[in-house]
Design a protein that fits this description.
binds magnesium ion; six-stranded mixed β-sheet; 240 residues; four-stranded antiparallel β-sheet; Rossmann fold; 10 strands; alpha/beta; 9 helices; ABC_transporter-like_CS; P-loop_NTPase; binds adenosine-5'-diphosphate
């Protein structure tokens, strides 16, 4: 589903990703963990070309997205992204947030977009908020709407960049529960997270990034029990 080969990304003279190579299969749930500044967000953003890799190759679904002729708009319809700070459209209701892109980008009819919106809001437990504006929602509710909004495009892959890091502790659970449900539907997911419990329980694999290098790529059981690198052991000692 996702194939990454020798991915490099620099910002000016700062080399942030130093040759990442990995493969993610359809239906895999992959947790990306590592210290702050290690390049986790940059890695994720390279997968949907929010950042353009400096060199290396990325294929999504057999299409090389690092090819200069890639249709970025079309690519993004295949890849949903959820950010730490939600990024909902503040001037739109919850339902408008969900129906905007399907109608505008995919040409879905309004009736169809609303029907799909209702079913997604039902899934994330927020159908009764359909006509609210984002400012009237809690952080956890906003993030659940953001997930539903991304799903409204029927993506093949979902990317999450620290989706619970901006939330009050009591709201973390409700968002993780939605993500866990989604994982159980077979969605391919790449999740940058500091929620080690979630990574352990839900992920099929853990990628550990440190200073732009993919140091570990292991099933969670192995990673948490016996990380191979000193850096990962240090990291786990600090966070667990
Ligand atoms: P993480 O998500 O693991 O905390 P990031 O990928 O956000 O790490 O950042 C890795 C490094 O790249 C940091 O040193 C950060 O300051 C730098 N960086 C990220 N984005 C940019 C950018 N757009 N311009 C310049 N430097 C950036
Ligand atoms: Mg980050």
């Amino acid at each position: 589903m996702i194939n990454v080969k020798d991915l490099h990304k620099s910002f000016g003279s700062l080399e942030v990703l130093k040759g990442i190579t990995t493969e993610i299969q359809k239906g895999d749930v992959v947790a990306v963990i590592g210290p702050s500044g290690s390049g986790k967000s940059t890695f994720l953003r390279c997968l949907n070309l929010l950042e353009v890799p400096t060199s290396g190759h990325v294929w999504i679904d057999d299409e090389e997205i690092t090819h200069p002729k890639t249709n970025v708009g079309k690519l993004r319809t295949k890849i949903g992204m959820v950010f730490q700070h939600f990024h909902l459209f503040p001037h739109m209701t919850v339902m408008e947030n969900l129906t905007f892109a399907p109608m505008k980008v995919k040409g879905v009819s309004k009736a169809e977009a609303i029907a799909k919106g209702e079913s997604l809001l039902q899934k994330v437990g927020l159908l009764e908020k359909r006509d609210e504006y984002p400012s009237r929602l809690s952080g956890g509710q906003k993030q659940r709407v953001a997930i539903a909004r991304a799903l409204a495009m029927d993506p093949e892959v979902m990317l999450f960049d620290e989706p619970t890091s901006a939330l009050d502790p009591e709201m973390v659970k409700e968002v993780l529960a939605v993500m866990k449900d989604l994982a159980e539907t077979g969605m391919t997911m790449v999740i940058v997270t500091h929620e080690m419990g979630f990574a352990k329980e839900v992920a099929d694999r853990v990628l550990f990034l440190d200073q732009g290098i993919l140091l570990e790529d292991l099933p969670p059981k192995q990673f948490f029990a016996a990380p191979k690198s000193e850096r990962a052991r240090d990291f786990l000692e600090k966070v667990l």
